[in-house]
What does this fold into?
Amino acid sequence: MRTRSARSGLLALVLSVPAAAQIPAASTPAAVAPAPVTAAVPAAAAPAWRPFQELGFLVGSWSGVAESGARVGGRVARFTPEFSGNYLVHRGSTILTADDGKEETIDEVGYFAYDREKRRYVASYFFSTGISATFDVEVAAESARLVSREMLNAEPGTKARMLFTRKTDGELSLSTDLAPPGGDFVPWLVSALKKK
It folds into this structure.
């Protein structure tokens, strides 16, 4: 009986000792060192997407030359976020020589908006000629292409297309093409601008 209680006491003692302490030192390889503790470096969080960040290459004031067929002149443009960043506004003015040798000025104001439900950009443009248009906007790297969905005060069926492209030298190319009803697009106004 005494033997049994001594064994039970020894068993209870062995079970109460932590597992690491039960491994004899001779069986642990001497070359194994504890794993180094490394602090986990949190990955930099990607900045949250904001409307118009893809169009950031347009923001600023620009000026340069403009051509419309044989007519030449100059163009200025300014793109600014407005109304608490809910719109990207384009204000521009183009001066061209008219057919009679005098100058013709065409002013434009465009409002880019982000349609949150459809997850796409749209733009509304108003020209000093009385024409206004609504455009669908396609954004690519350093460029934006606008294709008219609707035009007011123009011959029914007329379409417009605008392309804004940032060149590798930092220059901004703005071009406008027009298509008569049922016809193909033809260049109407081309300009090369530099940031002021």
